[in-house]
Amino acid sequence: MGALAIAVAGREHFPRYQSPFIRTSTNHYALWASTVYLAGIVFGNGEWEELGGRVMEALRRGTEFQMYFTWPDGTPVEVINDRNRRWRVDPWGLLALLRRTPIRGVPHHVLPEGQDGLEMLEQIAQNALYYHERPTAPIPQDRPQFSYRMRVPAGIRKREPWTIALSGLINAQPAMNQFFLDRQCHLSIFHEKLGLIVSGANSKRQPELATFRETVRGRTSHLPISTALRMEPGLDRLSLAYNTFFADLEVSEPSSQQVAFHFAVTEMGRVEEAQLAIQLVLRPGELLETGATRVVLGLDRVELGPDNVAGVIGHRGWSLRVDSPARLVWPVFPYNPYANAPETSLGLAVGVLTVPIRPQDVGGRFRKQDVRFVLEATK
Questions:
Q1: SS (H, E, C) the chain
Q2: Which end of the chain has fewer surrounding CB within 10 Å, N or C?
Q3: Are residues 14 and 105 in the same domain?
Q4: What is the mean pLDDT of residues 131-147?
């Protein structure tokens, strides 16, 4: 235990509790700190108790983050995650959060449905053991509408039944560590009844899944160089700068039935080859309809060109209209950091809708291109 206390103390005053600084994952460091804290209480070691308590103060900020950046079904918002593409409703650490903030209720936060196994049982039991009665208060997801912007360029907005997340978080270059994803995706759209429709999950060594990719003199890149986020009532705008262009992603205030968003691309250097990609959450075994065809999704590869897409994708109670020639590919298997390779389960595959970036002269100094989408709930 003394060695663990030394490891915690040695990192206490590092600039940020992030892996590039502390050289371990943040969940490991949190477990170290909580173990040192508990050992201090059990063994009557005041220094350990105080040390663990000081480090765990980061939970206050983590609580606020978790409170806003989960979808209405309790799953974490994936677009801001550079560690995992997907995550479940997780009972880990909730015993600490329950001590510090008003809660909506134990069943929603501590007893996620559909999860089993000894690890889940252990965490649920731990939460129950350390549960403390607290005043209840609505969380943002209970409200018909809310918005929240972090100090960094990332934010989330709900207008029932839609919740939309934008991320301008960037990494200057792909991380060499297999467990860290490239921050290459920037938009997620969730519907209260239909679930996640547009996924902003990040990936690694898969520029074809990036929101934008470009090729300049034979070299392909897919990470923005700079970003800016502006959130205002009625319109949110995320700006993404690349080598030869920048794009303004504008999301209008949703109605009850639909949300409109568009990408306004401005060429700053000559665009040689570039594309826009949207990851769609498609389900195997279910029908996909376009403006010109119908297909039941399965293991067979589906490649639909602009004539087959015909401007419309429909699936599981939603439809997405696009005003530009678009292609759709299914299934695309995203990266799994634990395997350091693509996923193999069809249930984790996505459909990728792509539009080529070909700016045109529209008058004025710069060539431009607009790509407009309308996502509508049809059920």
A1: CHHHHHHHHHHCCCCCCCHHHHCCCHHHHHHHHHHHHHHHHHCCCHHHHHHHHHHHCHHHHHHHHHHHCECCCCCECCCCCCCCCCCCCCCCCHHHHHHHCCECCHHHHHCCCCCCCHHHHHHHHHHHHCCCCCCECCCHHHCCEEEEECCCCEEEEEECCEEEEEECCCCCCCCCCCCCCECCCCEEEEECCCEEEEECCCECCCHHHCCEEEEECCEEECCCCEEEEEEECCEEEEEEECCCEEEEEEEECCCCCEEEEEEEEEECCCCCEEEEEEEECCCCCCEEEECCCEEECCCCCEEECHHHHCCEEEECCEEEEECCCCEEEEEECCEECCCCEECCCHHHCEEEEEEECCCECCCCCCCEEEEEEEEEECC
A2: C
A3: yes
A4: 79
The answer to whether residues 172 and 113 belong to one domain is no
pLDDT of residue 65: 79
User: What digits encode the pLDDT tens for the residues 236-286?
Assistant: 999 999 999 999 999 999 999 999 999 999 999 999 999 999 999 999 999
Q: Using 50, 70 and 90 to split pLDDT, how confident is the model at 108? A: very low
pLDDT of residue 115: 52
**Are residues 154 and 116 part of one domain?**
no
Give yes or no: residues 365 and 263 share one domain: yes
Containing structural domain, residue 271: 147-377
What pTM was estimated for this model as a whole? 0.88
User: Which of 96, 129, 162 is the C-terminal boundary of a domain?
Assistant: 129
